[in-house]
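To close the section, here is one more complete example, presented without commentary so you can practise reading it yourself. The ligand is zinc ion.
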Amino acid sequence: MKYTVLGSGSCVPDPKKNSSGGLLEAGGVLILVDCGPGVLHAIPRSGYDYTQIDAVCLTHLHLDHVNDFGALLFATNHDPECKREKELVVLAPIGFSQFYKNLKQLYAGTIEPSFDVIIHEMGNGEFDYGDIQIQTLQTFHTDNSIGFRFTYHDKVVCISGDTGYNENIVTLCKNADLAVLECSFPQKQESSIHLNPKLISKILSKAYVNEVVLTHLYPHTEDFPIIELIVQDYDGEITIAKVGKTYYT
Ligand SMILES: [Zn+2]
Ligand SMILES: [Zn+2]
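Output:
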């Protein structure tokens, strides 16, 4: 599996990075995981074709994770080069169908796609797309937020989305080859709905992850020694997500 970072920031404008999102590729399937502002335009910069996305997985409906979903549909309608006919599968939290209905109403036909959008609302569940097994578990962030675990053959990639510490995130990460974990805040900043180095260390001590990529850092978080604090308890590979970089399992 390949995971390419399209955005690694939070909701706060940041000169170095846009909001969250990434592309997972495995077995000829292309899955967009979250699409915050800036993610759509980052797709071609990373060498991918946005019209070829097979599925979109959304962790929650905060704007910094979902804003470019409407922009994606708008683009397919107004891009003279876009000839997309294949359906788009969307795995999203409970409530997304209503959100999508409202969004289409708000934009009065301009984002009504010419292809089918097949929505699967997910809580704690499983879904197969091609040869990829997708597991979702509820996270501690919004009422219906979810994290994703993708399994392709013997490889596992976990994407936390925004979350506080909870056992579900440990389960999603268990023995993963790659875990893309949010690290919104520095050590001194505690939150029940976001992670910091201390909480990430706690997850990693239980989950046995091979490689960790930290994402969703608020701008001020980068001023603190995030990695140094985590590696005191973790001996796998760990880096801060770099927009445009591809991670391989
Ligand atoms: Zn966020
Ligand atoms: Zn959020």
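Once you have examined the tokens, check your reading against these statements. The mean pLDDT is 97. The two ends are 5 Å apart (CA to CA).
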